[in-house]
Amino acid sequence: MRAECDVLIVGAGPSGAVAAQEFARSDMKVVCLEQGDWPDYGRARAGHPDYELVARKHWAWNPNERRNVGDYAVDDTESDISALMYNGVGGSTVMYAAQWERFQPSDFRTRTLDGVGDDWPFDYWDLEPYYEEVERQFAVSGLAGDPALPSMTPPPLPPFPLNKVGRRGAEALNKLGWHWWPGTNAIATADYGPLRACDQRAACPFGCPTGAKASVDRTHWRPLAGKDVRLVVRATVEQVVLDERGRARGVVYADENGARHRIEAGVVVLCANALGTPRILFNSADGSGIANSSGMVGRRLMTHPFGNAIGIFDEDLESWRGPLGQYLHSLEFYETDRSRGFVRGAKWNLIPSGAPLSMMLTTMWGDQPIWGESFTRLLRERLGHSVIWGVICEDLPDADNRVTLDGRPDEHGIPGVRIQYRASDNTRAMMAWHIDRVSEVLDAMGAKQKILNPLIPGIGWHLMGTAVMGRDPEHTVVDPDGQCHDVPNLYIFDSSVFPTSSGTNPVATIAANALRCARSLVARRRDLAAAS
Amino acid sequence: MTGHEMTEPAPDPAAGRITADARERLARVADTLIPAGAGLPSASTAGVHTGLLDQVARARPDLVPPLLDALDALGDASDLAAVERLAAEAKQAYEALTLVVAGAYVMSPQVTATLRYAFHETEVVDPRDTLDAVAEGILDQVKARGPLYRVPPDAPSGHGS
């Protein structure tokens, strides 16, 4: 049967969006299947009195709580950390904080430099031109010259204002003699393409109502869908179908009513994230699984353990306003120093503390009882007077941290997933050490009260590693360009392929690597066409 | 506020299911949860059982049934110990009750004005803030230290730190 498209992409998140745009520019016929729907920004209520009430339901981070169209069950009862994601057009960029970080050169060489993890099959400088290109696609704002990174072309937009919060953090780090740099964010600081300049509602992870944040539903899919790419929403891929030669023939997906449909494709590209991609691979071949001769599908799950340190101040810092987003980051203690008792490191970022319910109805603001006489006092102390330092620890791969299929099928008869994840001793030591240092920064900032939260169980935004890339088919799932070793026309472009996790936010690298892989696939196709 | 992708939520009949008696009982327990203090009004003075409750029901009609469950479970009790028992025995109802009370409270214009929480005011970014600070030297000592990153041994030539 003649294929209905040249390329079928599964998942409309950042890797799928970047790849779709690249394929469309190469005149390929592209179909993308997305299990969720378009984000409903009518429910992005920042600027309205009911903002947080609505956000807590419609922009809940955990799919098990949100249960929106496209959300599938994630059993995390055997995990130290809950897996967070957004299932819909835009993927998790709809809800990400948009902190834009290139991975460090050392992140690509952890085995060589520190004897842990695995080296990537390419290095920082191989990826550099792709970083530069996607930074223009994602309206990145920031300041060139950060000494924590190799020199680079300036991002397309200038950095965010430091405001009172950022300035106080910067001055404290200067006092300590520690590194900081104005935050780099995928948030427009001026009108840019389809995006508008940010108006600082501190709502980035709860649906940006302004249209300032570079989520790929806005930056990529709106221009692409219906014109260059056929995007099908509410389409949950059940499995990749192989032909008698073991090549991908297309996929079977369930529509919103559960009816099954089949689409034939020349090439299938999975961009369904580090839980969704192994879910599809395991469920393919009618549940026998595919692309797993290495036994590595689903293994090496990394989640980026996250902690924070909250500071409360006497002064009104207007910290309900600003980007969320980051005012600044510090990579002072990012690189390995074994005298600290662990290897690798963590990134810190300073953000405003946000809206009132987030600091009153939570377990992250200490153990003081909030009800009764203390409510009004705590509300006054915290709202506008507080800041948050986030700490992201590098999470080293461990084959026992894994994703498997959950035996209980969802409403369309497609299994959800179970995650088994334990934070390592190295991670816990790293987090404890870094939280202590960030606590020192809060002291230098003049905080009158500190609340320290090492390793927050409810925050696992950065999912990586479950279909590792490498040159050796015995130990890896895909080659350096995302091509499955076992199924030559099946590709994986999402963060499943990451050999290690870095200790910084992954979207820049997800996007850059997807562009690199897509361009490689286009080039191979041209070579094949020229040879035939 | 012009041009943003917002729509007003449709009116919802959920608030109509909350009786006057339930509102009175909510007022009592809400004042237990949030009494006046720190220059801020009590929950009932702010109106969490009247107009603010209607706004909550419009925004989150799903909260109304578990709120009514919570009020039924509490009966005439409105002390903190009773609310704590509710937390242990009926978590969903407790969470709805506390979210409604706190959520309504911080919607009060009186409360937000006292807190100087101007959530409705936007402030478009002015990148000159950071650029001016940099020009004044705020980053000078960071720059003076030079590169921080480690260079792998197989890095292309010319990328040493």
Describe it:
The complex is a heterodimer of chains A (532) and B (161). The radius of gyration of chain A is 22 Å and the shape is globular. Chain A contains twelve helices and 16 strands. By secondary structure, chain A is an alpha/beta fold. The longest helix of chain A has 25 residues, at 507-531. In chain A, strands 1, 2, 5, 6, 7, 8 and 16 form a seven-stranded mixed sheet that branches. Chain A has a six-stranded antiparallel sheet with strand order 4-10-11-12-9-15. In chain A, helix 1 (14-25) runs parallel beside helix 7 (216-224) and helix 5 packs across helix 12 (507-531). Chain B has helices spanning 20-33, 43-46, 51-59, 64-74, 80-89, 91-105, 109-115, 128-135, 140-144. Chain B has 161 residues and is mainly α. Helices cover 52% and strands 0% of the residues of chain B. The radius of gyration of chain B is 25 Å and the shape is elongated. Chain B contains nine helices and no strands. The two termini of chain B are 47 Å apart. At the A-B interface, helix 2, helix 6, strand 4, helix 9 and helix 10 of A face helix 3, helix 6, helix 8 and helix 9 of B.
